[in-house]
Design brief:
By secondary structure, the protein is α/β, with parallel strands linked by helices. The protein contains 7 helices and 6 strands, in the order βαααβαββαβαβα. α3 runs parallel beside α7.
């Protein structure tokens, strides 16, 4: 029997890159904030004086020292092993860093394919993936509008979307155990 493919995002879903970015942003821009302060996905909308280009340039450097990036949940490797028994795992990211593959391997995260997109705009177009796990509400909305299922991993920057979401194709996971249970029990 052919396994269903699950698309799983990296930044904010597998990897806690926002905490690493905030550490770098404190040094570079003088920002003192925690993950809980990041209430919008677009960081330049939250922190005065930082442009979209500043965010993109500094975000790229987060992955330079990939060994310092923590997982969103320490149980991710065992959860992914469990999911891999039943699903093809496609890691999907709009992050161009070549270090993501190294990070996945170093953390023992099982997957079948790593797919880099030029932007978030294209994720919903991926043929073969029926279920997505992401933290960016715009990706989740597009996936659901195209008739696919999506699980949004709750983060401070997607709370407003979650509170207003009424789409039955979108499930909300508060943590990685929720993601695992939803995938194993609903799909």
């Amino acid at each position: 029997m052919k396994k269903k493919a699950v698309g799983i995002d990296v930044d904010g879903v597998l990897a806690d890159t926002i905490s690493r970015w905030l550490s770098k942003a404190e040094l570079k821009f003088g920002i003192k904030a925690t993950k809980k302060n990041v209430t919008k996905y677009e960081l330049y909308e939250i922190f005065p004086g930082i442009t979209h280009k500043d965010v993109l340039d500094s975000w790229a450097s987060v992955w330079d020292d990939y060994k310092t990036i923590q997982m969103e949940d320490p149980d991710i490797p065992s959860i992914m092993d469990n999911l891999h028994d039943r699903f093809d795992i496609w890691i999907t990211t709009a992050n161009p860093s070549q270090r993501i593959n190294d990070w996945l391997r170093e953390n023992g995260i099982a997957y079948d394919r790593l797919i880099n997109f030029s932007s978030h705009e294209d994720k919903h177009k991926l043929d073969g993936v029926e279920i997505y796990v992401d933290d960016f509400h715009e990706v989740v909305e597009k996936v659901a509008k195209h008739g696919k299922k999506a699980i949004i991993l709750r983060q401070p920057w997607n709370d407003a979307f979650i509170k207003n979401n009424k789409d039955p194709n979108v499930l909300v996971a508060c943590n990685w155990r929720d993601v695992e249970n939803m995938l194993l029990n609903y799909f």
